[in-house]
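[Amino acid chain]
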Amino acid sequence: MKYSNNIKIKNQNLTFTNHRNRGANLEEDINMSNEYYKIINRAIIYKKPTPIQPTLIHYNQDKKKIISKAYFKVPSTTDYNGIYREKYIDFEAKETKNKNFYPVRNIHKHQIEHIDSIIKHGGIAFFIIRFSCLSKTYLVKGEDFISYINNKKSTIPISFFIDTAYEIEESYNPRLKYLDTIDKIYFGGAFNATTNQKN
C-alpha cells in the first residue's frame, strides 16, 4: 500500500492497533455492493481510506521509507462518498450487536457536523446502521438522525429505526440494495439501468 511521499507500508510484520473494530461485515457488504454498482455503471461510490499514524519507519535497500508499525487514527469525516444520479452522496456505516438500541457514542461529533454540512450544501447524506443480531440493516436520513440526537439522547431505540428509517433489502448482487432505498427516499422513483433515468 502506498501513501504520499513515496512511503510504502510493509505487508509483513506490520502491527496496527485498531480501535475501530466495528462494522467489518457491514463494510464488506457495502464494498462489494459498491463494486457491483460501479461495474454496471450505476454509481461511483468509494470507501474513504482510514488515516494512519506511523510510529516506526525504516528504510529498505532502495532507500525508500517503510512503515512497519502504525495505528489507525479517527477518520476525519465519514466512511463513503461518491456520485449517484448527478448528486453527491456521503454516508457513515455502523454496526451494533445490541438488538434494542444503537449507542450514539459510536458516532463522532465531527461526523455529525460533516453530515449536516453536506445536507446544507444540497448533497445527500445518511447513515447505514446494521443490527447484526437481528439481521436488519437500515438507512437513516442524516437530518432524521441529527434531529433525534439533538434531543440529547445517548441511545437510539430500535423502534426509531422501525418507524423512521428505511430497511435495506439484501440480495446476492448487490449484497445491499441501498441505492434502491435512496431512489425511493430522494428521487421518488426507480432507477432505469438502461436509460439512466427515473421511471
